[in-house]
Design goal:
Elements (H helix, E strand, L loop, with lengths): L6 E9 L8 E9 L2 E7 L11 E4 L4 E4 L1 E6 L18 H17 L2 E6 L6 H10 L7 E3 L4 E4 L19 E4 L2 H14 L3 E4 L20 H13 L3 E6 L2 H10 L4 E3 L5 H9 L4 E2 L3 H9 L7 H23 L22 H10 L3 H16 L16 E4 L16 E6 L2 E4 L1 H8 L1
Bound molecules: zinc ion.
Length: 426
């Protein structure tokens, strides 16, 4: 992804730098050749050359670009399980995915870690993004997911004789587990996404308290992935499934819904980050009926919502790391709604706006493995910056409406926001 040349100064706003430090009022951000040169009070900013480009924050907020830590570029208005993999051919899925990436950038998301994708779309999407062929977040690619046979993602009945090849490897035992990871190594993914547990979506055989993969399978995934320098994450709701994943050496935990004290201890011991995806549960409860979700499924989502909220409060209080990402791409939780996760954590879970913003920037970059370049506005890092009209710390919900976004910069290049639209209009 190309970086800007020359000097840009963003001023006339408060600065939230992503480190969790209190915001600096009347701040300036100086960008040199796509990297941050200065971030702090305007009075301390270095002298600007006459040709420096200026971005007026209009009294709003200057902050790091947001990181979506559980992003499904290839999901699009999913309403039924089948919509996940057999609704469209891969040709159309890749086009939809590029449209989703553009939208994410317009919403202020300058980076994203995938939570799994169809076929091998992520790896090629990442290439197109890196080569500036399409606009979108800097992407950390995942690939087809791994689940046990008969587990949560193995829903196509055998009589259909179509398998689950586009979306998941359905494994039976450690040999299958290794084989699946090796295929992903060849595909070129960076994160391996697995399904250690079930979900409220399948209340009969694979509910949120059911284990899908065995410890041995999970351990085989981790050993093979780590050998090839890949990281491993997993959809973990059930208490024992979370602990199995942590003991097997997982690098992050998706959801960690029903974590107990022993699980928390294991989590903190290796400082493993958690990505809740909690607003998805709220959306499933509130809008489930409209989309024909059975009452039992909605009740399961309600239990997941409450259990999850209690767990995330506990994890944050104990000093654990949480990334903000939200399983967007379902009919009731569509792409574009990404920032609803953030306001929901403030309003419902009780996180402070500063904690939430830090989770959505700094921690997200750490989960991506890109904290040397991304996540905070500090000297030397890439200038992936968001300029928002208004005080985001006072009203985090401003981020929900992309009309409030003045500028989205990647490597100092103005890519989206009201100022970019205006610029292109000239
Ligand atoms: Zn997901």
């Amino acid at each position: 992804m190309k970086t800007a040349t020359g000097t840009t100064i963003v001023s006339n706003g408060q600065l939230f730098d992503g480190t969790g430090a209190p915001p600096v009022s009347d701040a300036a951000l100086v960008i040199e050749n796509g990297r941050i040169h200065y971030a702090g009070p305007a009075v301390g900013a270095p002298a600007m050359p006459a040709e420096a480009r200026r971005i007026d924050a209009r009294g709003g907020t200057i902050m790091p670009g947001l990181v979506e830590a559980h992003y499904h570029a290839t999901y699009f208005n999913i309403e039924k399980l089948e919509d996940l993999d057999i609704k469209y051919p891969v040709e159309y899925v890749s086009l939809l995915a590029s449209v989703n990436c553009k939208l994410a950038l317009e919403c202020g998301y300058t980076a994203a870690r995938s939570g799994g994708c169809l076929f091998n779309c992520d790896v090629w999407l990442k290439k197109a993004l890196e080569e500036d062929l399409i606009p979108g977040p800097r992407l950390v690619a995942s690939g087809r997911e791994i689940c046990s046979a008969g587990g949560l993602m193995d829903w196509n009945p055998d009589f259909r004789k179509i398998g689950m090849d586009g979306l998941v490897f359905c494994i039976n035992g450690v040999e299958d587990a290794r084989k699946a990871v090796r295929a992903l190594v060849k595909d070129g993914v960076e994160w391996v996404k697995t399904y250690p547990t079930g979900d409220a979506a399948w209340p009969d055989q694979n509910d949120h308290h059911t284990l899908c993969m065995t410890f041995e399978e999970m351990h085989a995934v981790v050993a093979t992935a780590h050998n090839h320098k890949l990281k491993v994450t997993g959809h973990c709701r059930a208490t024992e499934g979370i602990k199995n994943a942590l003991r097997a050496g997982y690098d992050s935990i998706e959801h960690a819904t029903f974590i107990d004290d022993e699980g928390l201890e294991l989590l903190l011991k290796r400082d493993v980050p958690v990505v809740p995806g909690l607003y998805f549960e709220q959306a499933s409860v509130v809008r489930g009926k409209e989309f024909g979700l059975p009452q039992r499924v909605i009740e399961g989502h309600q239990e997941t919502l409450e259990g999850g909220a209690a767990s995330y409060r506990k994890i944050l209080k104990a000093g654990g790391r949480i990334g903000m990402g939200g399983d967007y791409g379902f009919g009731w939780n569509p792409h574009g709604d990404y920032a609803k996760e953030l306001s929901f954590f403030v309003k419902y879970v009780g996180f402070s706006p500063l904690d939430t913003l830090k989770c959505a920037t700094k921690t997200g970059a750490e989960i991506m493995g890109r904290s040397a370049d991304l996540g905070t506005l500090e000297s030397g890092k890439l200038a992936d910056v968001l300029v928002v009209d208004g005080d985001v710390v006072k009203n985090i919900a401003l981020l929900e409406d992309r009309q409030n976004i003045l500028a989205v910069l990647q490597g100092g290049v103005l890519k989206a926001g009201r100022l970019a639209t205006k610029e292109f209009a000239h």
